Structure formats: structure tokens, C-alpha cells
Automatic annotation (TrEMBL):
It comes from Salicibibacter halophilus. GO terms for molecular function: transferase activity. The keyword Transferase applies. This is Phosphotransferase. Residues 55-239 form the Aminoglycoside phosphotransferase domain. It holds the Pfam family APH.
Length: 284
């Protein structure tokens, strides 16, 4: 299987070399899929990606991702996009609490143009019911660890109707700090839109706030995002952070690293057993 993946990557690289010409030097640009490359010709440098998000042009026009330069379709059906190479860096985890992150995510979530386009591309909305069905695709472990996982699933199932929220937005769905890029002029971009979906904004907010921003900082962060912190939002974010954590554990495999997974299982258990999800940051 690994040989086939390597062969596929090399074949795709060859197609790109033929497309660009012999003066361009290609290198893989991270990731394990072989979909992204950097290309250099002297001082000119591009970021190339195969089969990226169909609404990349709109993201580029709104300054959410680096400028889209061109799009080409290969004879095998793959679509190649070329973007301006950004000389910058990924955000550090502690930088996710800065107001610029909140402001950009707020602008994305309020974009009607992005929402209208994604609704035409992706018809299924990621409601709590759909997300619960997604969990059923995983094989549950049949040992003592499964009690925490089943308890978390029952927690989500019991509360899915209570947290339903129909003011849907475009969600990026992967708020990892590695997807936030700051260029040399301190311009901020959110990249890697392959998993974007129409959903409750709390799907994005839950991970970003729970995993990157201290709870006492939630209210000022949300002010920069342009949203009030209230009980209803906290309840929805609590449901989604339980879902994210459970989905992450199941997707990674509970036996991948038992010590590491024990930490995540304890965190999941604490979330499920947390009766009072209302926090001190709501106090005056």
C-alpha cells in the first residue's frame, strides 16, 4: 500500500513537471497525501495543490487564503491550482487567542457569499444528527476503555436536539493552529479548506476556544469575533467539543499509543461528567 501511495505521488509530480516546464523545481509541501507542492523558478515561487476546495477562488478574492493565480485541469481529470507563495509561518498555539484570529474567523462565518457557494457544492448540513451518524462509521474497542466512549456517545445522543441551531455558516472544520498562516507583513490566512462544511459555527468555535484560549479569555475573544457569550452558546460548544474529542479518539485508534490515549480518554470523561458547563467568564 505504501508503495502504491509513493508511486501515485511520483506520478503526480511528473505530471506537474510536464505542466510547468523544465525550469521549475518541484518539492512536496508537507502532508502525507501528496496533493501539495512548492514550485520554484528563480525568484518566482508557487504553492500548487491537486483537487483543492472548489470555492478556492472566492476564498482568494476575500483574502482568506493566499492569492489564487491560475487553475488548470490535467488529462487525468485532476484540477491543479497555483497560489502565491507566502513567506510566513504557522501560528503557534498560544497565538490562537489573538484578536486577529477571532476577527478573521468571524468574517468567514458571516460571509453569505461563501455560504451560498458551499451550499451549492455540499448539500448535506453537518447537524448534530449527521455528526452522530458519522461516529457510527468507526469500530468501537471491546475492552474496559469502551465505557468512557459509550458514555460520551450517550451524552451526545441525549442532547442532540437541545443543541440544534439552524443559523448555519461555512465552517472550516479543522481549527488546528497549523492551518493558520501569518505572512511577513503580519497578514493572516486560514488554509486547507478540503473539509469545509455547512454547520453550526460552534463546530469551529468549540475547538478553538476549548483547546487554545483560557476560559477567562473567551469573552474578549468573542467580542473580537463579534458575538456575545451566553449560556446557549456555551451549551452548544460543550456538545461539539465532546463530539470533536470522541471523533478524534476514534479516528486515531485507541490502541495507537495507549499512554497518549489515556490522557485523551480522561479528558473526554471529564467533559462528559462536567455538569456545570457554565463558566466564570460569564460573571460581570
Amino acid at each position: 500500500m505504501e508503495y502504491l501511495d509513493t508511486h501515485k505521488k511520483e506520478k503526480r509530480k511528473k505530471w506537474l513537471e510536464n505542466l510547468l516546464g523544465r525550469d521549475w523545481e518541484l518539492e512536496t509541501a508537507g502532508g502525507s497525501t501528496g496533493e501539495a507542492f512548492s514550485a520554484r523558478d528563480g525568484e518566482q515561487k508557487l504553492f500548487l495543490k491537486c483537487n483543492s476546495s472548489p470555492f478556492l477562488a472566492v476564498l482568494s478574492a476575500e483574502g482568506i487564503v493566499p492569492k489564487l493565480l491560475w487553475t488548470k485541469r490535467l488529462t487525468n481529470g485532476d484540477v491543479i491550482t497555483a497560489q502565491r507563495w507566502v513567506n510566513g509561518r504557522k501560528l503557534r498555539p498560544r497565538e490562537m487567542k489573538q484578536p486577529g484570529v477571532a476577527a478573521l474567523l468571524g468574517r468567514i462565518h458571516r460571509s453569505t457569499e461563501l455560504l451560498d457557494l458551499l451550499k451549492r457544492i455540499e448539500s448535506k448540513v453537518k447537524t448534530p444528527e449527521v455528526l452522530l451518524q458519522q461516529l457510527c462509521a468507526y469500530t468501537l474497542p471491546a475492552d474496559q476503555q469502551s465505557a468512557i466512549i459509550f458514555r460520551a456517545y450517550e451524552f451526545l445522543k441525549a442532547r442532540k436536539s437541545a443543541v440544534y441551531y439552524d443559523d448555519f455558516v461555512v465552517c472550516h472544520c479543522d481549527m488546528n493552529h497549523n492551518n493558520w498562516i501569518m505572512d511577513e507583513e503580519e497578514g493572516l490566512f486560514l488554509v486547507d479548506w478540503d473539509g469545509a462544511s455547512v454547520a453550526d459555527p460552534a463546530l469551529d468555535l468549540s475547538i478553538l476556544l476549548h483547546w487554545y484560549v483560557p476560559k477567562e479569555g473567551w469573552q474578549p475573544w468573542l467580542e473580537a469575533y463579534e458575538l456575545d457569550l451566553n449560556d446557549r452558546l456555551l451549551e452548544r460548544m460543550h456538545w461539539y467539543i465532546v463530539w470533536h474529542t470522541l471523533e478524534w479518539i476514534l479516528s486515531k485508534g485507541i490502541y495507537e499509543d495507549r499512554g497518549y490515549m489515556q490522557v485523551w480518554l480522561r479528558y473526554l470523561g471529564a467533559l462528559v461528567e462536567e455538569d456545570d458547563w457554565r463558566i466564570a467568564c460569564l460573571e460581570d
